[in-house]
Amino acid sequence: MNVELIANTPNPEEVIEQCGRTCYKSPEKDAETRAKFIAGIIHAGHTSVIEHATATFRITGVSRSLTHQLVRHRLFSFSQQSQRYVKETEPNYITPTSIQEDLAEGSDKKLDPTTRAAHKIYDDCMQNCWRTYQILIELGIKKEDARFVLPNAACTEICVSGNFREWYNFLNLRLDVHAQWEIRQLAWMILDKLMAIAPNVFCGLQKKFMSEANDNALMQRIVKLVNDTSRKVYTEKELDLISKNIKDNTPHDIKEVVLPKHATTLELALDPYTPIDEFNR
Question: Exactly one of 34, 64, 174, 184 is catalytic; which is it?
Answer without folding.
Answer: 174
